[in-house]
Amino acid sequence: MSEIIETWYIHNRINLYLLDAIEEIYLNDISASKGRKVADQFAHLHNVRMMWLKVAAPELLDGLTKFDKDIQINKSILVSELSKSADAVAQLLEKGFNEGKIKGFKPHPTAFLGYLISHESHHRGQIMLTLKQSGHAVDPKTQYGLWEWGSR
Description:
Elements (H helix, E strand, L loop, with lengths): L1 H20 L16 H19 L18 H25 L9 H25 L6 H6 L7
Helix pairs in contact: 1-3, 1-4, 2-3, 2-4
């Protein structure tokens, strides 16, 4: 199980690695299709984690703050909240693997991990595209670094 939890943490570090490479001002970039701002994409990842925690293990929500319209989003708060929600999801995964299920999700905990990583990776791609369309693409080192799971 430790490799599965480590996979989750590697994935989260990749998200934070991308966030670190983005200049604060570019968090306001919006995709050409008028979707969410870059900052709102990161906030969405956190909020979806919280949604699943609320369904499957509400006791793990303690200390987490949902991003809403009243919260001023910046890199610092994104790093803090994404780190906290990653820890809570890791606890949920451990609980799920011990019990053989994630409440509210089928078929099993491994599929839940796959779902979370797929969902967040989709949004990471949207973030990359938004930045590129806005003329603020992340540097090639970071682009390749997103795939260096062995060193993250």
